[in-house]
């Protein structure tokens, strides 16, 4: 049985994204910074949510390729908007 390197790499990226998200969330909770909260949401939407949608939800719910792609695109757009909003520096 050969390992699926794409899934393994995606899992590593999701794990690292989860670590960065956790630290940004801690900064949000500690200082009450809206910027850090939005950054946490953005990083999670860029790294964790697509992996969950592709590797876990799609096979479990028998999503078609189109539905899976839509979920990933929506996650990317939400993450982009959150990070863009966090750069305003409010």
**Oligomer kind:** single chain
How would you state the average pLDDT, rounded? 92
Q: How many helical stretches?
A: 3
Low-confidence stretches: none
Question: Major beta sheet, specifics?
Answer: none
Can you write the helix and strand succession as a string?
Answer: HHH
Share of helix, binned = over 70%
- The gyration radius over C-alpha positions equals 15 Å
Residues in β-strands, percent: under 5%
What would you say this structure looks like, in words?
The longest helix has 28 residues, at 34-61. This protein has three helices and no strands. The N and C termini lie far apart (51 Å). α1 (5-31) runs antiparallel to α2 and α2 (34-61) packs antiparallel against α3. The protein has one domain (5-86). Helices cover 86% and strands 0% of the residues. The protein is globular. The model has no long low-confidence stretch (mean pLDDT 92). The protein has 90 residues and is an all-alpha fold.
